[in-house]
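Example record

The entry below shows one chain as it appears in the dataset: sequence first, then structure tokens.
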Amino acid sequence: GDEHNCLDDLEILFAPLNQAAPSANDHSNGHTVGLARCARLRRLSLVDCGLVKLGCLQPIAHTLERLCVADQKLTSLKDLGSLPQLRWLYAQQNNISRIEGLDECPRLRALWLFDNSIQRCEGLTELAELRELWLQNNKMKRLGGLEALTALRDLQLAGNPISDYRDLPRLARLPSLESVGFRDAHFGSCPIAEREGYRDAVLGALRHVTSLDASEVTRQDRHRARDAHLENVLEFHEKVDALQREHRDDAAAIEARRRRSSAHARSLDGEMRLAFAELERLVDEGRQAVKAEHAKHRRARALAQRSLDAALAAALAEHALACDDASHKADRRERRDECALLALERRAKGERRIALVIASLQYGGPRFTSNRGDPPQQLPPAKVACQLLGEHSPDFRWLDARLREQPKGDADPLCLLRAYRVSRRDEALPDGKCWFLRGDAALIEDAVRGDVKDGLVLYASASQACAAFRSSSSSVSAPQKGGDAVDLLEGSSDDESDDESPETLWDECKEDDAALSSSDAAGSLALLLLCREVDAASGGDNATKRNLLMAAEASAQKFVGGQAYKSSDLLATPAGLTGVAVEHVLLCGSGLCSRDQRALEADLHDDGAVGGPTDALLDALAARVRAEVEGHRQRVARDLEPAAVDQLREADADLADREDQLRKTRARIQSE
């Protein structure tokens, strides 16, 4: 311990260290140097030890005079701390980029920082006793920051990128500076030292320097530098005098030209004013002539424009009328198509309904009540045979002819759509007088089955039966006849829905009945029974009575303007009276419903019945507008003669040229 306490000088060379620590037990950052027991240490040298940080030097702060940390890995001196007795600091060959941390080393005399990365001098304001500063081989370009170093004697700057003489006056303000170096055999030269006249320029600026680049400054060097400086000053003054003489000559020449220009301008001003007044008069005359000609042309164009406007307005009015006519035709066609579609739909529902009635008669089926949710009543097949008559069969044509026979005054004749022959099995058909019964599907079915409990009214013609049915339907809205019979066989339901629930079938039956009882612009449908008179006495036995499905007694009562029988007893017919037997079940129509289905479908696809399309009307309007515009152009060309138009254009061009000349003349006058 005493040996360390008496230690005066310590050198550590090439030993791996990271920093100098206050004690030997502090190993927090790797290898360290313990200085706590070296209380009298004056000189400390650490060379190539790999230091990256100085650490704490406070144990030797009051005794340390010389510190060497050369060839290390230091990047800064800010950890140096307070070293009031430090005289010499050698920190060359490190990675220091900034001078800092020296503010608490006021007695420092020598500072070596060569072979670092310093870019400018700074942080030296507190080093009033600094005499030696070596900054070779750094990155400094300027020489500022040295003004406070009044005791500085030796300044070495070789190897720095200094290339300008303008900072030399700053060094001249250092009163103690004796030796300066910008060139060195080891560190190389600054760019300033390669310039011609370098030594004379430096000695001329730094007259108190005794050594330059390690070479003593002799008396001859000072005389030569002074002579070169005087020669440069004389040359500079000669250049200034030459420039002043040239300036005076140029000023005199400019003044002479100005005077000549003023005299010429005054003489030219009078001439130009006269010419300008004449030019203005000519321009005014041309402007008035062109204005009058333009007014004439505007009047001609206005007349032609009014004529064109009237023609275009007439064309637009005619086009509007044509569009209205086309719109009315389209509306009529739309209403006709709606009626045709309604007739097709109503006809399809009527055919479906009569088909269901015939199917129920032949195969039996359920009958629904008036309430939608009530369960249906199953009906057995009727003891009748039903045969569909073809449209081209003689019977079908005979029946159609009978339907078309109508009393005078009826609006639309009836047309046969479907016909079914009805007869008892294995019995001959009657051949007496024909009577007609009109009713809904349930009444027709009950009449064929022989299940009618109330009296029925038969009419001599189909049109009378239809008129009577419409009269009774208008007095009692939506009559209910106790339900409808429908066919529940597979495939007999409407193909628009696959749901064969009782509710769906009930809805379809009601729609079909509504179609049979409707009458409007689309026409109407009628479900009829064709009954034949039979003589009860001709049969003479019960077989003939069984063939009498309805019996009636003669009556002179008139129904709806026609002859009629009123039935009284369906089963017990008195001998000698006349009865009727059901022969055909008929579906007939009037209005559009009576037309052929193919003709209705053809009308729906016939686009030629409507008036001309809108595109054709627009094309016609465009053609007429083009014709009117062309006529307007020809009228304008006729009213305005080509020669007059050409003269007007030439006058416009001439007026534009004169106005341009007027502007140029005015500008020239202003310039002069």
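Notes for this example: Confidence is low (pLDDT under 50) at residues 27-32, 476-498, 536-578. The chain is about 45% helix and 15% strand.
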